[in-house]
Design a protein that fits this description.
This protein is of the alpha+beta class. It is built from nine helices and eight strands.
Length: about 280
Amino acid sequence: MTQPTPSAQLRAALDLAERGIPVLPLREGKGPMGNCRACRKNVCGGRPNMKTPGPCACAAPCHAWAAATTDPAVVTSTAWASAWRQAAAVAYYPGGTGLTVVDLDNADAIVWARQNLPTTRTVPSTRGEHWIYLGTMPSRNAVRPGVDVKSLMSYARWLGPGTGTMTPLPDAVRALAVKEPPTARPATSTPTVSAPAGGGQCPHRSPAYLERGIAMAEQRIEEAPDGIHRTVFRMFLAVLSAHGRCGCLTETHIGRLFTAAQTRGESLRHCEDAWTNARTQLGM
């Protein structure tokens, strides 16, 4: 029986994996594949250590950047076959191979980089360029207009090897990930809302499950490019929906969510209103 010819994406992924670069498939729109049925909405609890790549207990390309692998057997496995049939591109995990990508999304961002960052290896992208440095750092989107930093716990689209000599990650790039102090209200304003009383059945298999839920909500709020009011409400709603009825949600958890929102410029009043509205919508 004739074997099907591997797609261009699969061939590229295998080549990268064999060179020690962790890869994963991207769907149309440059997003990662959705979690498999067993991992949908992270009901599997994710992986025990979200700082390094590697799947959870399932074999599918779940959990975005965390699924990135250098194992050709995994890349060509049956569990990944459906993803490659849908794939529109290949991504890689920069932090997993010791790199940082400064994603410059337009001409203005490129001009800024040429004036403020040391030259390094560059790769043309659809609308701009990727500047690749040797070294890792925390990832952060929208560090300035048209500029994202992708390294640890993030993925970047593979666009080719690029040109130029790769230089060590400079302090000027590291400084981009440092969060600026809030401009509206102090992030330390104390919320006056209270945690739900609970009393329902606890679905958490471990304290780490709740911790991951809070951390993911914080990250979504911190990385929201716009529509911060809507994002804050959605994250409050998601946390309350998953963790608000069993009594595990504490004042400390609520404080962390409020701090993330206030760091993005939300006022304490807006945070309290969003929390109250989320509880009302859920009938709490």
